[in-house]
Design a protein that fits this description.
This protein has helices spanning 10-21, 28-62, 68-92. The protein is built from three helices and no strands. The protein folds into two domains: 8-62, no CATH class; 66-93.
């Protein structure tokens, strides 16, 4: 297994030491290996999320598109229908 020397700021070094002293890890190398594995997992998840977003954007750009006036007319109709339903309910109650 290759060996690497790494420099850590005091705060990270203290964290590594605490992790070993707590018994969670046998030595500093295990802590660092776990940190790198977690970083790698996180990067892979980020890449998957970015790819999913790119795919969703591409799908969205393909359409179908609706013009604003049609959408607004549909929304006004829904609001009127909902208001009528609410008025009927309030008369019953």
């Amino acid at each position: 297994m290759p060996t690497r020397n790494v420099s850590l700021p005091d705060a990270l070094d203290a964290y590594v030491e605490e992790s070993v002293q707590s018994g969670q890890y046998a030595n500093a190398s295990e802590v660092i290996r776990e940190a790198i594995r977690e970083l790698r997992r996180s990067e892979l998840e980020d890449r998957a999320k970015v790819e999913a977003l790119r795919s969703a954007i591409a799908d969205g750009l393909e359409g179908p598109f609706r013009d604003g006036s049609t959408v607004m007319a549909e929304m006004r109709k829904r609001i009127r229908t909902r208001a009528q339903t609410n008025r009927k309910r309030s008369k019953i109650a």
